[in-house]
Amino acid sequence: FRRAHTLTVLFILTCALGYVTLLEETPQDTAYNTKRGIVASILVFLCFGVTQAKDGPFSRPHPAYWRFWLCVSVVYELFLIFILFQTVQDGRQFMKYIDPHLGVPLPERDYGGNCLIYDPGNETDPFHNVWDKLDGFVPAHFFGWYLKTLMIRDWWMCMIISVMFEFLEYSLEHQLPNFSECWWDHWIMDVILCNGLGIYCGMKTLSWLSLKTYKWQGLWNIPTYKGKMKRIVFQFTPYSWVKFEWKPASSLRRWLAVCGIIFVFLLAELNTFYLKFVLWMPPEHYLVLLRLVFFVNVGGVAMREIYDFMDDPKFHKKLGQQAWLVAAITATEFLIVVKYDPYTLTLSLPFYITQCWILGIILVLTWTAWRFFIRDITLRYKEIRRQKQEHKYEQDKCLSNGDGHQSMMDEQNGNKLRERKL
């Protein structure tokens, strides 16, 4: 993927597409021709972007791989903008052009209901409630949080996002029945087993990557076949390792940035469920899986760009392009949800839920004001007071020893004269 060969690659691709079009007779199906033309246009754009887009912070397995996902981000954002400007009915029916089975309303599955772990009324299978919850989303939760840990690289932030999302499910289960789960499904299966185990394995992987010795050698310079295979496998690991130290309490800027990252993560998680609801996509549809794969690839680059911008703003003077695209995609998805089903989003929260969120927001704001304003003022006041006490102690010591008595008296008289003038 040499950039100097961009025009050659585009020329060959255009000729190949034109040759295929000329060989076959053009069908009279307008919808089919439209889809084929759109796909060909996207392929040409991706080919151009892979060779000409700006490199990101990652270089393994190849910079072209990450340029490809950057271009996919642009295509996905344009698709979201197109959906945003359609009517609700047209937008849902447009999904039929992608998959004819879409465009029909689907019932939401309720994971709540009977929450007995051991059901004595069912003699054949008293643990049927547990087995019903063990579906394909359990390994998806584990692998999802494993990959999120590799992106965030911080135990504290991962646990905060995991617990906060469970609180969001409690708060929004009156809007989406899919959020209604049993207490043990929330805290035992999700937070402890799936999310917790995924975060633990992710942190262990991060520890291995941070301790790994990064010595790269050319493939053809390795004499043994075993060494060549090992080198090929390690091509899919990072070229070098950067440990993320977010330090959210070190400054107000970093604290607000970390809060913003957590907010965007939670919003992207909520968009997954709300988009399925408003666009009538079943949870097991391949488009849902493709969206998650997309966010895994672009999210890692975005997090690295955000950390570089926060950690060294003098060298990284502006936020990276992938981070801006991820933020724009998340915001556009939320706008689609608001437009397509405003009634669901405007369903008022239960009063006790509102009280809990108000209390939580007040606690966070109070801690922020104490940590970055009141605490600093108090520390400065204590430091000034300590310096005055030390200065007074030195003066008393000089007077008691008889050293500098006259100079001290002159200084005191001068201070009194200045006070009178004032």
Automatic annotation (TrEMBL):
GO biological process, one term: phosphatidylserine biosynthetic process
Residues passing through the membrane, by range: 6-24, 36-53, 65-85, 155-172, 184-203, 255-274, 286-303, 323-340, 352-373
Region Disordered, annotated ranges: 395-422
Annotated function: Catalyzes a base-exchange reaction in which the polar head group of phosphatidylethanolamine (PE) is replaced by L-serine.
Protein name as it appears in the record: Phosphatidylserine synthase
Pathway entry: Lipid metabolism; Phospholipid metabolism; phosphatidylserine biosynthesis
Subcellular location per the Swiss-Prot or TrEMBL entry: Endoplasmic reticulum membrane
The protein's Enzyme Commission number: 2.7.8.29
Enzyme class: transferase
Alphabetic keyword roster: Endoplasmic reticulum, Lipid biosynthesis, Lipid metabolism, Membrane, Phospholipid biosynthesis, Phospholipid metabolism, Transferase, Transmembrane, Transmembrane helix
Molecular-function annotations in GO: L-serine-phosphatidylethanolamine phosphatidyltransferase activity
Family: Belongs to the phosphatidyl serine synthase family.
GO cellular component: endoplasmic reticulum membrane
Catalysis performed (reactions): 1-octadecanoyl-2-(4Z,7Z,10Z,13Z,16Z,19Z-docosahexaenoyl)-sn-glycero-3-phosphoethanolamine + L-serine = 1-octadecanoyl-2-(4Z,7Z,10Z,13Z,16Z,19Z-docosahexaenoyl)-sn-glycero-3-phosphoserine + ethanolamine; 1-hexadecanoyl-2-(4Z,7Z,10Z,13Z,16Z,19Z-docosahexaenoyl)-sn-glycero-3-phosphoethanolamine + L-serine = 1-hexadecanoyl-2-(4Z,7Z,10Z,13Z,16Z,19Z-docosahexaenoyl)-sn-glycero-3-phosphoserine + ethanolamine; 1-(1Z-octadecenyl)-2-(9Z-octadecenoyl)-sn-glycero-3-phosphoethanolamine + L-serine = 1-(1Z-octadecenyl)-2-(9Z-octadecenoyl)-sn-glycero-3-phospho-L-serine + ethanolamine; 1-octadecanoyl-2-(9Z-octadecenoyl)-sn-glycero-3-phosphoethanolamine + L-serine = 1-octadecanoyl-2-(9Z-octadecenoyl)-sn-glycero-3-phospho-L-serine + ethanolamine
PANTHER family per UniProt: PHOSPHATIDYLINOSITOL SYNTHASE (PTHR15362), PHOSPHATIDYLSERINE SYNTHASE 2 (PTHR15362:SF7)
Protein topology in the membrane: Multi-pass membrane protein
Lineage: Eukaryota, Metazoa, Chordata, Craniata, Vertebrata
